[in-house]
Design goal:
two-stranded parallel ribbon; elongated; single chain; about 300 residues; Rossmann fold; alpha/beta; about 55% helix
């Protein structure tokens, strides 16, 4: 039996004797093969449940991290002011920082509708770029807002991952300090692109659904007149709302999607597929930017 396996056995036997205790293990992966790390984490979780234990481990290993449920992970960041708790990363960010995205081009956007729009663009440009399925080469993911993007850009650059990322901000972020900070934190030429429109993507998607109702209803299995009626009803319901145009559009798009047993991201994806095929559409700067980003990524 290898030394690492013996240490796992000894540790498991010692912890198995405890009841209702707190167990602290520093750098739990030390000296262990990745496969053994996974087995150890499974065993520790079983012991914690069986013996009413709270087990806290520290680790730099992505294998250990992925062996723990998301709600059981705490990220710590060491800075000039000491060690602080870092907000949990989304999967696309986490995978990059732990070296699991080295062969992928990662497209990071702000929310689920933005993600749907980007997926729709890639539905159109994948074939011409000679790319495969959704899971092949490109991963589109989202975070909770643009304010975190400069921090991510700095982290990706530090960990040597910046060449594998494209940042896509909502249209209302163009020419803002946030967009400039993302560019400043990343290396020169790192792609920072923008969704069409001057508000949240839901506003643009709503406008294009009305404009392209024939194409969208073909995908929905409905008639343009029925879709227009639903949209007009929603407009009348929310016409007197005091929220911002972006917030109102988000609610309307959610209601419209639910009426078709869909989610807003699916509507965004369908609209983007239609618009990406039209040379004069406002989405074309994003389409061309993504084409260029793929070419740049392939050439590095």
């Amino acid at each position: 039996m290898a030394a690492g396996e013996r240490s796992v056995l000894r540790l498991s036997l010692e912890i198995a004797q405890l009841r209702a205790a707190l167990v602290l293990i520093d750098e739990v992966e030390t000296g262990l093969h990745p496969w053994v790390q996974k087995l150890l984490m499974l065993q520790l979780q079983l012991l914690a449940l069986r013996n009413n234990l709270q087990i806290i481990v520290t680790s730099h290993s992505p294998v250990v991290l992925n062996s723990v449920p998301a709600r059981g992970r705490i990220f710590l960041k060491r800075g000039d002011g000491g060690v602080t708790i870092q907000e949990p990363f989304r999967d696309i960010v986490q995978n990059a920082l732990y070296g699991q995205s080295e062969e992928l081009l990662n497209i990071l956007c702000e929310d689920e509708v933005a993600e749907g729009v980007l997926q729709g663009v890639f539905d159109v440009i994948r074939p011409e770029l000679g790319m495969g399925s959704d899971s092949d080469a490109v991963r589109v993911g989202r975070d909770t807002g643009a304010q975190q993007f400069p921090q991510y850009a700095e982290a990706f650059k530090t960990f040597g991952q910046i060449r594998n990322f494209v940042f896509v901000l909502d249209g209302d972020q163009e020419n803002t300090s946030t967009a400039q900070k993302v560019q400043d934190k990343a290396e020169p030429g790192a792609p920072v692109l923008f969704l069409p429109g001057q508000h949240a993507p839901e506003v643009w998607v709503w406008e294009q659904i009305r404009k392209r109702s024939r194409e969208i209803t073909h995908w929905l299995g409905d008639h343009p007149e029925s879709l227009q009626t639903r949209m007009a009803n929603l407009d009348s319901v929310y016409n007197a709302a005091s929220d911002t145009p972006s917030e109102i559009a988000k609610v309307k798009l959610q209601d419209l999607a639910q009426s078709y047993n869909r989610i807003p991201a699916e509507l965004g994806r369908a609209v983007a597929r239609v618009e990406a095929e039209l040379p004069g559409s406002r989405i074309q700067p994003l389409v061309n930017g993504l084409r260029d980003a793929v070419g740049r990524w392939r050439s590095v």
